[in-house]
Each structure stands twice: as C-alpha cells, then as structure tokens.
Amino acid sequence: MELKHIPLENIHEQLGAKMVPFAGYLMPVRYSSDIEEHQTVRNGVGIFDVSHMGEFILKGDRALELIQRVSANDASLLYDGKVQYSYLPNEKGGVVDDLLVYQISPVEFMLVVNASNIDKDWNWIKSHMEAGNFADGVDMVNISDDTCLFAVQGPLAAQALQPLTNAKLDSMSYYTFEKTDFAGCPNVIISATGYTGAGGFEIYVSNEQAEAVFKAILEAGAPHGIKPIGLGARDTLRLEMGFCLYGNDVDDVISPLEAGLGWVTKFTKDFVNSSSLKSQKEQGLVRKLVGFEMIDRGIPRSHYELCTADGTHLGEVTSGTQSPTLSKGIGMGYVPSDYSKPGTEVFVKVRDRLLKAQVVKLPFVKK
C-alpha cells in the first residue's frame, strides 16, 4: 500500500527527524533520542505532529442520536466545548476503534479516530447511519485529509502557548476545548487533551494554517525549551500512563470490558452490542488487562508470554517497554481475573528464561 504523507513532512526532515511508516503514513519517530524526548515532555514541553489522525464532522438534528447508537459512552452528557473519550463496539464483542467525541454545538460534533482505522470507522458509522435511516438527519464529512493536529504536551505547555491566544489556557479544564484565534489564524480548535499524561493541549488547524502555526509554536515555546517529539516517545509516555493503544491492547476481538473500558461503557442507553456486553459484565470477566512492573532485569515486549512460576501459560504482553521515568521494565497484558490483583506475581518468558514481574495498579507513573 502506498504511504500517505503529512503536510509538514519536509519540515520534520529539516529538523532531523527519522521518518518511518506508521499506520499507513510516513511519520517522524524521533529527532534525537526516545529517552531525551520522553523526558522533555514529562518535565518541560514538546510538540508532536500527529496529523495522521482522522477527523469526521457529524452535523444535523440526529447527529447525537447516531453517536449514541454507535458509541459506548453517553454522549448526551456532552455540552458545547466538552470532549469525551469513547469507543465504537462491534457486533462480535470487540472494538472497531477508540475515539474522542467533541461537541461543537448540540447539532455538530467532531469525532477524532485512529489513523489506521479512518476508512474502517467511516464505513462503520456510515453503515449504521444508513441502516438506522439517519441519512435525512445527519450530514457526515470526512475532514481528515484537510486537517493537521499538533499535540503540545508537558507541564510547561500552557506557558509556552499562552502568547499565541486570548483563550485562558491555565483555566481550561481537562477534556474541554475552545474554537478561537490562535497564532493569528481563525477557527483553530485548542483542546485540553493528550495521550501523554503530562498535561497540555492538542491544536487542530487546516492544512493551509499548519506551517505557520507549527513554526509559531516552536518560536513561542523556545524560551521554555520546546522540542519536536517523535512517535517513539509518544509510545513510552502513553504506556507509563496505562493508556491503551488500538491494535495492541484493544482490537476487533478483545472485549472492551476486559480492556478496562467499563468506565466509558454506559448501559443507561442502547448501543451496538450493548446487551451482550451487559451479560458479560453480569457474568463476570474471565480475564483482565493488567499493568505489571519487572522485578527481574529485562524489557517485556509485545507478544512475550506471561506465565506462572512453573511456566503455565497465563496470557501475553500487549504493550511493553523500559520506562524512562521509573528506569525499569513495564508492560500491560491479559491474564485470568484471578491473577489481576495488584501484588500478584507473574513471569515474562524472554527466550527460555522466566523473568519475575508484579501486577501493579495503573498508571505506572502517578501524576
């Protein structure tokens, strides 16, 4: 499949980025080192270009009704300027994708989806729109190819960005957004969201505004030590917070309840596969996604086996890395519910060795 290109690819190359294929796009994976970039975001401020992400606008009198049907969280709790984390359940007990829902007005919403799932999600929502006869009451527009997204993350993000906008960044609540002027550009969405757990903002701009806005952020952030950050550090940052990555920790066949997404699964309404998920909850979960820290030296990698002390198979690692903040191996994986309690001993099979680890309460890094 031919790779897609984000609009600022040349700028990232000029900044020294190593570009790699990711989710169908050529993306910057690192500029210096993953550890250095990770610490920049944890302790200061960094900017990620995540323009590969997908954005859909759903507009019309029945837009909310359609979102309520296809997503598990209760979007009726949204208000203008509020963001909600949710997921699209499928009919076979897994997840089509996880996503963010933005309420622009009571009849206009923006859905932000994972880059690898843009076409799949679009077709899924469209099919439910047609099956439920929503077509008269909902207009769907895919703005993914026309939209750039910059994640400015870290404890110094508000200070770095404040000179560029009249929006009061310090007083913006987590998971809210404003549509306003930013860096001299109109109609920019500034969202108090992110995938790092370090605090910060996500900035949605049109492709035409992207270069000017990106350069303005680097300039305004210079006194605060802002640096461009790649996808390598994004992965270690999200894993330290125990955030799921679609395709690793959650997918088409993994139950969202086993994945720990019960908190965004609202049985106060009917949605795709809700009755089956409700039964699963009532019967009790057979397995659960847990976080674990290595006690023995070693780095748990995706697909490494999780075992008991005698080598009995429990499950496998879905995400794992060496934590730059904790200086030890951390990971997530599925184990039988009996083994999911914090403090439980598990073992990671690395080649022919069983390395000791311990189940811990997420997140790994406390804020």
Describe this structure in words.
The radius of gyration is 21 Å and the shape is globular. Among the domains are: 4-50 and 145-240, Gyrase A, domain 2; 286-360, Elongation Factor Tu (Ef-tu), domain 3, CATH 2.40.30.110. It is built from eight helices and 20 strands. The chain has helices spanning 9-14, 34-43, 63-70, 118-131, 157-161, 207-221, 231-240, 274-283; strands spanning 4-5, 18-22, 25-30, 46-49, 54-59, 83-89, 95-105, 108-113, 139-142, 147-153, 177-182, 185-191, 200-206, 227-228, 287-294, 305-307, 313-323, 328-336, 345-350, 353-360. The mean pLDDT is 97. The strands form four sheets. The protein has a six-stranded mixed sheet with strand order 11-12-13-10-4-14.
Topology:
Elements lengths: L3 E2 L3 H6 L3 E5 L2 E6 L3 H10 L2 E4 L4 E6 L3 H8 L12 E7 L5 E11 L2 E6 L4 H14 L7 E4 L4 E7 L3 H5 L15 E6 L2 E7 L8 E7 H15 L5 E2 L2 H10 L33 H10 L3 E8 L10 E3 L5 E11 L4 E9 L8 E6 L2 E8 L7
Parallel strand pairs: 1-3, 4-14
Antiparallel strand pairs: 2-3, 4-10, 5-8, 5-9, 6-7, 7-8, 10-13, 11-12, 12-13, 15-18, 15-20, 16-17, 16-19, 17-18, 19-20
Please outline what is shown here:
This protein is 21% helix and 34% strand. It has 367 residues and is of the alpha+beta class. The longest helix has 15 residues, at 207-221.
Which features would summarize this protein structure in a list?
6-stranded antiparallel barrel; alpha+beta; single chain; 6-stranded mixed beta sheet; Gyrase A, domain 2; Elongation Factor Tu (Ef-tu), domain 3; 367 residues; globular
